[in-house]
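Co-fold these.
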Amino acid sequence: MNPLTTCLLLSALLFSIGLAGALSRRNAILVLVGIELMLNAANLNFIAFWRYGPNPAALTGVMFTLFSIGIAAAEAAVGLGIILAVYRHTKSTDLDHMNSLKG
Amino acid sequence: MSTLTLDPIAAKASLLKKDGGQLLEVSMGPQHPSTHGVFRMDVVLDGENVVKLKPIFGYLHRNHEKIAEDETYLGSMPYTDRLDYFCSITNNWAYALAVESLAGIEVPERAQYIRVITAELTRLQNHASLVGFLMQDMGASGTPLMYAFREREKILDLFESLTGARMMCNYMRFGGCRVDLPTGWLDQAKKVVAAFPKFLDEFENLLVSNEILMARTQGVGIIPAELIVNAGITGPLLRASGVNYDLRKVDKYGIYDRFTFRVPLGDHGDVYDRYMIRILEMRESVKILEQAMRDIPEGPFTDPKTKVRNFRPKPGEAYGRIEAPKGELGFYLISDGSPNPYRYRVRPPSLINLTVLEEMCLNRNIADVVIILGSVDIVMGEVDR
Amino acid sequence: MSIVFFILAALTITGTAAAMALRNAVHCILALTLGFVGLAALYLQLGAQFVGFTQIMVYIGAVAILAVFAIMMTRSAGPHPQPAFSRTWRTGTLIAVIVFAVLAYAISHTTLAPATLPQPEVTVNQIGDTLMHQYALPLEILGLLLTAALIGAVIVAMPAKQEAPQ
Amino acid sequence: MTTPDTIDQIFVITKHWLLGYVPAPLQPIASAILSVLPVMGVFPLLFAITTVLERKGLGRIQNRYGPNRVGPAGFWQPAADGIKSLTKEDVVPRNADQIVHFLAPIVLVIASFIVYAVLPIGRNMVITDLNSGLLYFFAVGSMVELSVFMAGWSSHSKYSLLGAMRATAQMISYEIPLVLAAVVVIMATGSLSTVTIVNAQTGYTMGFPHWFVFTPWGFAGFILFMIAATAESNRSPFDLPEGESEIIAGYYIEYSGFKFALFFLGEYLGMFATSGLAITLFLGGWAAPFSFLTWIPSYFWFFAKLLVIIGVFIWVRGTLPRLRQDQLMGFAWKFMLPMTLLNVFVAAAWHFLPTGIIRWAVCTALLVIPFIVFSMGLKQNKKLQVRTYRFAE
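Predicted complex below.
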């Protein structure tokens, strides 16, 4: 097995873990964390492809990862803000309680 | 999720906020570095804001009043030292004043002067250390406190050479004082008092215009004048809220009408005012001390006619009160003609000044609670008695 | 592929799996930080130093801390802690397993020929140059996005003003 | 090599000499160990010395002696303290989260230690010269917050929870000005490597050094950095997370014995590290202050500067009262953040303006005027003033 495949398998596993968490956790914050993990799996892929790709000097993978991290930070801030706002309304972070879009 | 379980009391008080957040009930004390003794505050916090505060005391209750009723009049005198153990001499004076008015005892001139001198020295050391403690509560890592304690030590040394004890002085007697001033004592006291304004200047340089101090204390813990009068609060707290009431001026007990001094008044009634009022009062006390030490006459230090043994005042009642450093300290006595009082009651300023603690602390930060309590100036020996 | 890689991979998987499986939410986040550290170390291992440190700074220094903060602020007040997993957790896990199976199948049946180049040396200056020239527009957009996110998060999380008394 | 150079490089030479005895395949590991071990030894030693100095210094400020019983002038006091904390019972609250409670001090100490990897403590004396050294420093430094949170949360005490919330809020808020204050130096040197940053400051003009602190933006950056560093290391007047008079000891209230000592160690190590970084960024690292003093070894200068900064920390601690939480936050967001952003702008202006007096004047004005405006704003918001009092006769 070559190193790139290993990296990709690892990131696939990471993605699946994130997916499993996002689909099965009740706590909205942990669902968000699961989504972050999926994003991280993608980042790992980018880095792996950059490292073992034909043209590492172009820095494409690194750039994509940096932007992705930046966006993840924004996403986390807004996501947690929304969770706080919802919590204030429903008194719970349990996603099973958030079953209506109306306030 | 949360493993912080609610206390039963807190659960009863329904500690859920309207917006779903959770309130936190914290028991500040009785083992807390800033409660000035074994005092406890049941604080309900929203984040760090106080939404409810319940003072709880009694940890130091010693049954002082009841014991005094089984004790001779003189036998209670050392006990009064332990009320406000910072200012034993003023406690003695208030008690002596009550007994003197009960038994109709005249106090000789020299004794009056000695009383004023020792009482004002007590006020100096109480206020100085209070300001130090207040700074300590504000987190100034002890420097102002140590400065204040340096001055306090000098005054305590004076007390020690006069009475044999540094804090539990047991100095006053009905009709005068226990012993006369030792030779050279007055000179020593004059030196200490003369050096005191320098210390105050130094202290003010260090603290008064400190911006952190102003930010921490100005506008914090305000009590309006109306509330403070209704709550019966006395002493520097009352004057910081702008009410001109000083028993030294109102009652003119002892010989206070002979001295010229002013009563500083605050306009805001916040912690900064209380702190400044105390500093200004120290300056006025220095003035009184200078006058008293200049004018002190020779003569007997105690009323020779007063019986020490078998002291039985006529049946009746009396209330003696003084302006103690913390406020109006009063002793109410009923005599039935026996050697011990029928009823003995203390009006402790510390306890009564505590009554508005919740009003001062509501919607304030937990850090404010500590300095508000510090600015009230309590001594648990007096609160719990 | 060195032994270090596999140790770090194991660390990452353990951390993240624990983050998704533990019952206590704070434990989850702490396990998650372990996973993030592993991931950052993997980036370092792969020669992306800058990305690795950024990963630690953003994910541990900001995201994880924000998450624990949010958990603290949304502490459930009820006497019984809510169950950690949703009713449909079996389905969710099944889907995840299927996804992994598909991905793994796809990856292992694709012939990938990695260029066996030496470890690329990326200096911060190179990254800065690339960011400022080639990717200047995305960078600006990202800055705008972050500002918008900051303001948005503040507005969303701000407690509603109390209505004026009638 | 001249003699001063030999003395300056004595540790580097010793290391290479020792490495000569190690077989070639093991040399990288041996080199790493030989670099790390002195740092692991020196900074805890400095911690021990600082605890004595701090107690003695505070004592002198407060008209008392400080420790003077154990050993000569009390300098064995840290040994006594260490023995005491080692032999004390390790109390863990029954309801505490045992594992996290145990891990928190360890994480803190590890995070505090590994930041030293990029700190140049002398010429050629740095564990690793990372290309993105500053980023590494701040990234690892942000892990400290996590350990503080772990400690406060796992104790399951309300005071420690309050302390942890205070600490995390404070550290997050002050990390931004801390990084932004450092950005000006990155702009000036065009590098994130700490070694490059120090090397950029080693020159002299007419005997005076090229330290960044001697420029308007450098001076402002240094002050802002030090304020933020004080807050980051929870020192007075920003010691709210401990707040011994309010929340008693904050996040580590439930720790005792050796774990408490570890917290103490971690906190001081963090303080040394941020001070060391301030020295690296603004005070010329290991460079001598005057060109005629360059014969004194470089590591001496580093530790001399470090001790001076520690002295300032002690002085401040003995002088100022503590802020309140809202004031602390307001200070971070309403003063520190705008000032650091402005400072970044000033550094850019400095870069593009021609050298000369105009550059100085413009940059200084750009900093001083907003400083006055911001501080007036902070003051007027609260209507702070020295009051006058009336007297009743």
